[in-house]
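Re: beginner question about structure tokens

> Can someone show what the tokenized structure looks like for a real chain? I only ever see the sequence side.

Sure, here's an example I had lying around. Input first:
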Amino acid sequence: MNITYQLEPNLTAAEFIAVLKASTLDERRPVDEPERIDKMLRNADIVVTARDGERLVGISRAITDFAYCCYLSDLAVDVEYQHKGIGKRLIDETHRHAGIDTTLLILLAAPAAVNYYPKIGMEQHNSCWLFRRGRSQ
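And the corresponding structure tokens:
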């Protein structure tokens, strides 16, 4: 296994969908809407991928101002490649590209991943507030 990490701003929606499915993150992403997935990719500031040869095995997709904060919106690693440090490295690469000395990296954990983040040294923050999609005003 020789995993390479790189910025891939032109990643295709089909590849993104495939790794979302292989990671189980597809349960919480609109994988049945390829146009929306493509828009998610095109409007991201940072897309870092992990590949084993040509095979896409992980992705990190983030929105950032490169000065103060970086929201890591998607972190997906193919189930076959989990527990090998790939997720941590994707997070580290994303934070490095956003500006590790100046940006706070923020993410919302998928329910199945809640116990993962403390293991890699991330700090839990208990005050997140949000509006759900499609809410009436």
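Each token stands for a local structural state, so reading them left to right follows the chain. The chain has one domain: 3-119.
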